[in-house]
Design goal:
The protein is an alpha/beta fold. The protein has eleven helices and twelve strands. It is 35% helix and 17% strand. It is found in: Cytoplasm. Its main location: cytoplasm.
């Protein structure tokens, strides 16, 4: 059975989001039906726009242009200059996409990049980003950020915190929840019957037996041993500098990393344009392109839609569709 269309929230209008939506439609057309939720007037001039009243109308509309579920914004798009006065509508677009997905009328939500300061200034947005907002809206207290491509899947155990705070934030119970959520997602979403998870150490050389740090000995290794004793195919702690070459990657389905850059540097090096942000632990599918608003090139026609197309494709595949 063909899944319902994907909901695509508009993100920050002053960024490259509107251009990405049109470029994605030009590549995918009705092979992967999605609905842009936002102001039709914010899409690039001359783009083929098809206004719809219901997301169920997307498959037909997508044969003729970009299907848009209209959301009236309080002003025009100003490429390169965020408009805090439009922040409420940006959040509303995300919320509408979530509601459609939870109701089963959309198969997934794909979110275009937001400008966090504009949302904080204009809407009192108190969340560090999409991920935390979606977790709050879904009523879950722990979600996991996975960056995925055809070449690598990585999960940072800690995300947007200063590097100096990582050792204090690295707790066995939080790390265990991250590993378990990742394991469950590999089973349920990716259909991997026996997921293999590799866990990185925090310190150089995974601590060298305590000579370069004790987090591996005191936190990471005991947890891995306990999970492995349960039958989970989890290994480590591995030295992060030897985890990401081709031969090593063949030995696992996902890598758990201890901090943001330890996870994102390898995937962005290996597959910069095709990396997709996937939120695990939500009761619905959410993906996003793995980049920001790119204000410096907004409105110039230079935006690369590859990551957005891949994010839509991943959402569609996880929902049971094929492209």
């Amino acid at each position: 059975m063909t899944p319902a269309p994907v909901a695509l929230s508009c993100g920050e209008p002053s960024g490259i989001g509107p251009e990405l939506a049109v470029a994605a439609w030009q590549e995918l057309r009705d092979r992967l039906p999605f609905a842009f939720i936002g102001d039709p007037a914010h899409l690039p001039e001359g783009a083929p726009v098809v206004r719809i009243d219901r997301i169920e109308d997307v498959p037909d509309a997508a044969t003729r242009g970009v299907p848009v579920l209209p959301l009236r914004f309080s002003g025009p798009r100003v490429p390169g200059t965020p408009q805090p006065g439009q922040a409420v509508q940006v959040v509303e677009a995300i919320a509408r996409g979530v509601d459609l997905t939870v109701a089963g009328r959309a198969s997934a939500i794909c979110t275009l990049p937001i400008h966090k300061k504009a949302l904080a200034d204009g809407a009192g947005f108190a969340f560090p980003g999409h991920t935390e907002y979606l977790a709050d809206k879904a009523g879950v207290d722990h979600v996991v950020m996975m960056l995925a491509s055809d070449r690598l899947r990585v999960v940072p155990a800690t995300i947007h915190i200063p590097l100096a705070e990582v050792p204090q934030a690295l707790r066995a119970d939080e790390l265990e929840r991250t590993i378990r959520i990742t394991h469950e997602a590999l089973l349920r979403l990716f259909g991997i019957a026996a997921p293999r998870i590799a866990v990185a150490g925090l310190n150089p050389h995974a601590g060298e037996g305590g000579r370069i740090g004790r987090e591996e000995m005191e936190i990471i290794a005991p947890l891995i041993g306990r999970l492995a004793a349960e039958g989970m195919a989890v290994t480590g702690p591995h030295s992060a500098d030897t985890m990401f070459h081709e031969r090593a990657r063949a030995g696992y389905d996902a890598a758990i990393c201890m901090y943001h850059d330890q996870a994102l540097v390898p995937i962005k090096t290996l597959d910069f344009d095709r990396g997709v942000n996937l939120t695990l632990g939500l009761p619905f599918i959410r993906t996003s392109p793995d980049h920001g608003t790119a204000l410096d090139i907004a409105g110039t026609g230079r935006a690369d839609a590859t990551s957005t197309v891949e994010a839509l494709k991943l959402a569609w595949r996880l929902a049971g569709g094929s492209v």
